[in-house]
Every structure is written in structure tokens, then in C-alpha cells.
UniProtKB/TrEMBL annotation:
Pfam families linked: MaoC_dehydratas, MFE-2_hydrat-2_N
Single biological process term from Gene Ontology: fatty acid beta-oxidation
Molecular-function GO terms, alphabetical: (3S)-3-hydroxyacyl-CoA dehydrogenase (NAD+) activity; 17-beta-hydroxysteroid dehydrogenase (NAD+) activity; enoyl-CoA hydratase activity
UniProt protein name: Uncharacterized protein
Organism: Alterirhizorhabdus solaris
Domain of life (superkingdom): Bacteria
MaoC-like domain ranges (all copies): 178-279
Domain Peroxisomal multifunctional enzyme type 2-like N-terminal residues, every copy: 27-153
Length: 292
């Protein structure tokens, strides 16, 4: 049967297992600090975020945010994804897992593999897993990132539909609520960490795709949520946040207030959601794990 889908949307089950192979990666303190600034660290209270934004403050050691893993592992596409049109992509979900804290400077090996594809009818969801190992033979696994993208027009190929919607947020009041204020130029700062898609910077490009103005990167909102989890659930210690996952619900605009509601479920299990200034969910069905 002829495949009537657009050429850049032809998701198939054969994509599963496609891999980038082992790719070397390196990062340094400048990249670590620039990322932290890009997700709002230091904007409201500079002196409170010195461990994320400076490498030479007396008595303060620089730490990387756990969500910086999304930057370290980005850009290593499996060949199967190269055949798809990025203009049809919507970031659907993101998960990170760290087996050890991400150092502010390091080298490693990244491998990205297509793990699953789902047929959602009007579109398809392609999930890729990126692993980060240290450099050298036998080097340990540092962490893994799992990214799910929704490919508009990519459904209808007869693949599995996948599970239904996850459980809703708790009905009880949040145990912690963290409010962050993004800046109008937030997307321009965040894009310097690597994602320079014009949807986040070019007003004409954004309007042509149905947005009033450029939108904030989904992973920038994710980074704000990570900071909130560190503050509201991990006692201010980024090394204690070992897992984080969430589903992107709707775009957030630069300059929005981002409010993260956090529920502590015991045993280090956490649920969260991040809402914009209008009260709409930017990230929903969020979960996290906090080490003791």
C-alpha cells in the first residue's frame, strides 16, 4: 500500500534500534554556568545561586544542574531520525536519570538509540534513549536521557498505540510551591547552550507557525522545573536529584512566571507540575526521585 504521509513524517517500526554509535562529548565550567543562567539561575537572587553560576566564589564549589544532562547528550541523532522533518517535531516528554552527579567539567561518550515508536493516529511518538558514559574502556555510566518527540502527520503506519494518559496530579495541597520569573530575553540566553531553532528567536518564523511570538524552549522550562525540585525537594543540593520526568503540555513564553507545585510522596518519590502565569500547565505528570 502506498504511504500517503509527507516524506518527512514517515515513521516506521523499522526505526527501532537505529543508533548514533559512540560519539565523544566534552563540556566545561563555562558551558555549565551558561546553562544555569539560561534556565534562570541567579536572576532573582544572584547570591543564592553562586554554586550554579560561579566557579571562583570563596567557599562555594560549582555544581551542575541535573537537567544539564539534556545539553550534554543533545545533537547525536540516530540515522533514522535524520530522515524526518524537524519542523514536524513537538517535544512530548523528557526524562533524565543520573547514576552519579554530573561534574561541571568532563569528557565522555554518548550513544543515542531509537527505543520505541507509537502510532497515535494523527501523529507518531518516537522515543530515543541517550546514554552518557565516562571516557575510556570500562568507564561507568553517568546517566541517561529519554526524549519523546511527537511527529505531526507521522501516524497511521499500524504500530502500537501505547499506554493511556498517566494519573492526574494529587488533589491534596502541594507540599512545596516554588515560583520563578523568566525574563523576556530568556530564550535568547538559553539558545546559546545549543538549541538555536528559530521558533525561539525569530518573530516572523513563530507567527508563520501560529504563535504570537517566539516561545520558550521546552527544555528551558524543564530546567526551571529542575531548579524548583532542587530547592523544594532536595534541600538545595543538585546531587540529590537523581531522576526527573515530565510531559510537555503547552508552550510557555519568555517573560512568563513559572510556578512549580511539588508533592512529596515519601521514600524519595516526588510528583510535580509546572504552570505558567495564566495557570496553564507547561509540564504535567512530573515525577522525580530524591536520594537521601
Amino acid at each position: 500500500m502506498d504511504d500517503r504521509r509527507p516524506a518527512g513524517a514517515r515513521v516506521t517500526l523499522d526505526m527501532i534500534g537505529s543508533t548514533s554509535g559512540d560519539q565523544p562529548v566534552a563540556w566545561d565550567e563555562r558551558a555549565t554556568m551558561l546553562y544555569a543562567l539560561g534556565v534562570g539561575a541567579g536572576l532573582d537572587a544572584p547570591a543564592e545561586d553562586l554554586a550554579l553560576t560561579t566557579e571562583n566564589s570563596e567557599g562555594v564549589a560549582l555544581q551542575a544542574l541535573p537537567s544539564f544532562l539534556t545539553i550534554v547528550t543533545v545533537g547525536h541523532k540516530p540515522p533514522a531520525l535524520e530522515a524526518l522533518d524537524p519542523g514536524r517535531f513537538l517535544h512530548a516528554e523528557q526524562r533524565i536519570e543520573l547514576l552519579r552527579p554530573l561534574p561541571p567539567r568532563g569528557r565522555g561518550i554518548v550513544r543515542t538509540t531509537v527505543d520505541s515508536v507509537l502510532d497515535k493516529g494523527e501523529g507518531a511518538i518516537v522515543t530515543s534513549v541517550s546514554t552518557l558514559h565516562g571516557e575510556g574502556p570500562g568507564a561507568p555510566l553517568i546517566g541517561r536521557g529519554t526524549m519523546s518527540i511527537f511527529v505531526r502527520g507521522g501516524g497511521g503506519f499500524g504500530g502500537p498505540r501505547g499506554p493511556g494518559r498517566p494519573a492526574a496530579a494529587p488533589v491534596r495541597p502541594a507540599d512545596a510551591t516554588i515560583v520563578h520569573h523568566s525574563r523576556p530575553e530568556q530564550a535568547l540566553l538559553y539558545r546559546l547552550s545549543g538549541d538555536r531553532h528559530p521558533l525561539h528567536s525569530d518573530p516572523a518564523f513563530a507567527r508563520a507557525r501560529g504563535f504570537d511570538r517566539p516561545i520558550l524552549h521546552g527544555l528551558c522550562t524543564y530546567g526551571f522545573a529542575c531548579r524548583a525540585l532542587v530547592a523544594g525537594a532536595a534541600g538545595g543540593d543538585p546531587a540529590r536529584l537523581t531522576q526527573m520526568a515530565g510531559r510537555f503540555r503547552k508552550p510557555v513564553y519568555p517573560g512568563d512566571t513559572l510556578t512549580t507545585h511539588i508533592w512529596l510522596d515519601g521514600g524519595g518519590a516526588v510528583r510535580f507540575e509546572t504552570r505558567d502565569g495564566a495557570g496553564d500547565a507547561g509540564i504535567e505528570h512530573g515525577t522525580a526521585a530524591i536520594a537521601s
